[in-house]
Structures are given as C-alpha cells and as structure tokens.
Amino acid sequence: MNTAIVGNPLKNYIGGQWVDSLTTRFEDVPNPATGELLSRVPLSTREDVDKAVAAAKEAFVSWSATPVVDRARIMFRFHSLLVKHEDELARMITMENGKNLPEAQAELLRGLEMVEFACGMPTLMMGETLPNIANSIDSQVIRFPLGVVGGITPFNFPVMVPMWMYPIAITAGNTFILKPSERTPLSSIRIAELLKEAGLPDGVFNVVNGAHDVVNGLLEHPDVKAISFVGSQPVAEYVYKTAATNGKRVQALAGAKNHHLVMPDTDLKRAAKTITSSAFGCAGERCMAASAVVAVEEIADELIAHLIEEANALAMGNGLEEGIDLGPVIRDSHLSKVHDYIEKGVASGAALVRDGREEAQKLPDGYFLGPTIFDKADAEMVIVRDEIFAPVLSVMRVKDFEEGLETISRSRFGNGATIYTNNGKWGREFVQQVEAGMVGVNVGVPAPMGFFAFSGWKQSFYGDLHANGKDGVLFFTKKKTVTSRWFEDGDTSIGSQKVFVK
Ligand code: NAD
Predict the structure, then answer these.
(1) Distances (CA, A) of 254 to 342, 464, 467
(2) What EC number(s) is this enzyme filed under (predicted)?
(3) What spacing in Å lies between the alpha carbon of 327 and ligand 1's midpoint?
(4) Residue 202 burial (10 A CB sphere; 0-12, 13-18, 19+)
C-alpha cells in the first residue's frame, strides 16, 4: 500500500487531495487474522463532511456537463487499472477483512462487473422520445444526475459494496462521497488513488473516514441529494428515516437471515456441500450467507451428518495462506457477541452438534470461530430470529414443503432464500411463494450479477429502487419530461386541438 499518501493515521480524500481529518478521535484497524495493527482511522467530524460536500458540489458543475461518453471512458481506464492491481487489492481485502484470498479475488470480480456495467452508461442513460403526441408537439424524457450523493458501506465487502454505488453514480454525472466502514477503510483509499490515475477529475470521488458523525453529517447536509446505504438492519432503518426526513432520495440495504429449504428428493451430499460453502464462506459474514436450514424431517439426520462432515474438512486460518477455507470474523468484540449467541442457542434448547469454539483456541491472536452448527432450532429462537453474521448455522426440522415455507415466512428478514430439489413443481412454487427478494433454486448464494437489481424484501431493505442494474441507474438519475412545439416565422396560431366525439 502507498503509505506515503495514505498516511498513518489515515487521511481523508477531499477534492483530489489527501487531507488530515479535523478530529482528535481515532480507531485502530487491526488485521483480524493476527491482531496486528494495520493502521488507525480518523473518526472524522461534520466539518470534514462539510469540506467534502463543498468540494463535490464544486466539481459537479463541470463533471455533470462532461459528455457521458467521456465519463464512461474514465471507467474503462479505471477497469484496466483494477485488473492490473488485482493481486494487490485482493491482498488488501484479505488483510483488512479476513476473508481468504480466493474470496477476496471473487469480491473484486463482482465489483469489476459493476464497473463494466457503468461503462455502458451512454446507453443506460438514454431517455425516451415520442414525436407528435399532439399536432406538431413532441415529448421526450431526459435523465439528469442528482448532484452530490453519498455512499455508506459495511465492512464485509470493502471493495465490492462501494462499487454497487460509485461507478453508476459518477458515470451518470453525480459527484460522490464515500464513507467506508471504519473497520475496513484501507482498500477505499487505494480505490481513490486508482480513480485519480484513471483521470477522474478532483472532487468527483471523495472519501471521508469515520463513523456516526460522518453518517449524520451526510444524512443532514442540504447539498447531499441521495444516500445509498448498505449495512445492518437497525442502522439501515435509521438511515432511511433520517435521510427521508431530510428530503433525500434513499436506498438502504439491510441485514438478513437467509433460509435454505432442503427437500427429500435432492442429492443430500451435494446440498450439504453447497450449504457449507454458503454458510461458512467469508466466515459467514455475507448478507447472502445461508444461516438457517429448513430440512424436511425424513432427511434431516442424514443432511446434518453431511454438513458436519463438510464442516470438519474446512481449514481455518490466515486467509493470506494457501489452502485456507475459513478466515476470522471482523473483530474481537463481534466474536464475543457471537459466543453469546451460541450460549443463548444452547440455553433455548437447540442442539449444538458442532461447536467451533474449541478449534479456534489454536489461533489465539485472531478472531476465529470454527463452523458451528445447531440442530433442532426453531423460528422463535433468538439464534434464528437474529442475524448472527458469523459461521453459525441453525437447522430447523419441518414436516413438509408447506411447513418449510411457513417457517421461512416467520422471519422478519427477506434477503435471500434457496430451495434444494429436483422437483420442478416445488422449485416453481418456492420461487412464487417465498418472501425474499433473491431466490435460489439449487444455488447456495443467489446474489444477482451487477446488471440485475440486488433486492431484499421485508426488513432486509428500506426504500424503493434497489441497488445495481437499471434500478441503480434510476436511483442515481432524475427525469425531466419535455413537451415542445416549434412555429414557423409568422405563424401566430397557438396550435390546433383535436376534439374527440363519442
Ligand atoms: P453496520 O450497520 O454496523 O455499519 C454499516 C455502516 O453504517 C458503516 O459505515 C458504519 O460506520 C455505519 N454505522 C454503524 N452504526 C451506525 C450508527 N449507529 N449510526 C450511524 N452510522 C452507523 O454494518 P456492518 O457490521 O459494517 O456490516 C454488516 C451488515 O451489513 C450485516 O447486517 C449485513 O447483512 C449487512 N449487509 C447487507 C447487504 C445487503 O445487500 N442487504 C450487503 C452487505 C452487508
């Protein structure tokens, strides 16, 4: 990493310059696999936000007037730089987040898809025209950028989640302020450097590091026109309400409890492999992770035996090392909360059939938890009601498909849901009936690619237009409908109107 620019403590990136925050408060950024201190992040102030908004507002004047093809060309150059620096970026993700290198590379790839999507902005931003809607009158819809927009992101995909936002936002002509997670602030700094290298004018992309004060500064600033948020459910709800109260457009993607329904006709070994990868990949810190399995009773014992076997085969450790399947969770404090959940699960009567706490003791410096599996959980237990966001999987047993669907419907979340079956009727019924925005049929992580909307339901999403795809373009642009009529010289009429008679 370019520490000369980044500095330690980290700086903010405002108007194309690396500047010190005005704060006196800082937070440590450790490597979660080792506890080693990587950097210190400033908890920036509202005054820092004001400076960034002023710089972004000034840059908006010329950036929004820059032809969209020229804006897209910068995205093409940015894409090449991302590919060139792929290894460096992936290592940075692994160091600050803990996921293993292949997972970090996959994250980058999913982010690259968003940049590729934004490269098509000349087509995506096209309006609509209908000539002669009345005699000699034409109508057209033109799309405009909104102005200064803000992105507030979580720790679990430090490169990809911001890429759900800024490539579309800035290629559509907005200027952007990113508030990365204070727990994973490093890769955003490298991204800012690469955007500058790609030729992005100063002030178009800004980074203000910090936590609540920066978020509130963005939510309440009159010159910020829209907020895109991704994070936990309570914060998403708060961001949605506060941004809306302050007259902003807002999309807030929230937490999840993704249920996977396993039917008796499926290949159980294959289903267990898929569920294991979904539940324990990225240490369970994915908003699309399988966290609750709903197993039809007649196959539950066999499925659980396969799940335990698959989990036993996972190698846990520092994700920078070869052959590691399972990295740490993000912080010691998070690990303590997860331990509490495990205790609560046991106390509520669920059967702890695989306890990942013991094997974690071999890795005392990092924040590790081995794959943890509960059997005989039910929808009312706190381990099923809450998002734990760790390698903890709860299995519930049900009589049949209908009871499975009913069990899933009791969750307050509706991000992802998957069914494992060979039966087309069940597969189709599940797609139609399940209350979730992203549905998998025999797919463990049914996260849509960048050109589709990323869309949770229920308490997994607050807003209207979802992230990514055409929704993302609609979110970051506003429409103007023009009705026009032109006269010949000397024509004094006000135009004719046709009268329709029944
Ligand atoms: P988080 O809610 O703790 O933090 C997200 C952002 O909000 C951070 O930038 C943080 O600084 C800020 N923040 C946190 N608390 C705040 C407060 N009280 N006031 C103002 N701002 C605050 O989330 P996290 O732990 O970083 O990320 C994990 C969560 O994100 C999980 O719940 C996960 O499901 C969710 N997530 C959802 C999606 C999705 O698409 N629905 C995608 C990724 C992550």
Answers:
(1) 23, 13, 12
(2) 1.2.1.27
(3) 20
(4) middle
Using CB atoms within 10 A of its CB, is residue 416 exposed (0-12), middle (13-18) or buried (19+)? buried
> 394 CB under 6 A from ligand 1?
no
Whether the ω angle into residue 9 lies within 30 degrees of 0, i.e. cis, is: yes
d(CA 364, ligand 1 centre) in Å: 27
Active-site residue (options: 49, 108, 146, 287):
287
Per-domain residue ranges of the chain: 12-253+450-480, 258-434
Domains 12-253+450-480 and 258-434 share a fold: no
Q: For residue 365, give the DSSP letter.
A: T
Ligand 1, residue 330: give the atom nearest the CA: 25
Sequence-distant contacts of 485-494: CB under 8 A, at least 24 apart: 485/136, 485/137, 485/138, 486/136
Atom of ligand 1 nearest to the CA of 155: 26
Which of 156, 331, 386 to probe ligand 1 with, by most ligand atoms within 8 A of CB? Answer: 156
Which pair of tokens denotes residue 222?
A: 């009159």
DSSP label at 201?
P
Which CATH topology does 12-253+450-480 take?
Aldehyde Dehydrogenase; Chain A, domain 1 (3.40.605)
Residues 211-243 have pLDDT tens digits of 999 999 999 999 999 999 999 999 999 999 999
Q: Looking up tokens 């004018």, which residue turns up?
A: 201
Look at residue 497 in the predicted model and tell me its pLDDT. 55
Q: What are phi and psi of 455, to 5 degrees?
A: -140, 100
282 tagged catalytic: no
Residue 301 structure tokens:
């014992």
Sorted by sequence, the CB contacts under 8 Å of residue 168 that are 6+ apart come out as: 114, 117, 118, 121, 468, 472, 473, 475, 476
Task: Express as a percent the part of the chain with pLDDT over 70.
Answer: 97
Superfamily per CATH, domain 258-434 = Aldehyde Dehydrogenase; Chain A, domain 2 (3.40.309.10)
Decide: 219 in ligand 1 pocket, CB within 6 A. no
Which amino acid would we find at residue 236? A
Measure the CA–CA gap between 127 and 183, rounded to whole angstroms. Answer: 40
Question: In 3D, which of 216, 110, 120 has the Cα closest to residue 158?
Answer: 110
Contact indicator for 42, 230 with CB cutoff of 8 Å:
no
Burial of 166 by CB count in 10 Å (0-12 exposed, 13-18 middle, 19+ buried)? buried
The pLDDT-based confidence of 90 (bands split at 50, 70, 90) is very high
For residue 233, give the ligand 1 atom closest to its CA.
32
pLDDT in tens, 249-262: 999 999 999 999 99
- Band (pLDDT 50/70/90 cuts) for residue 4 is very low
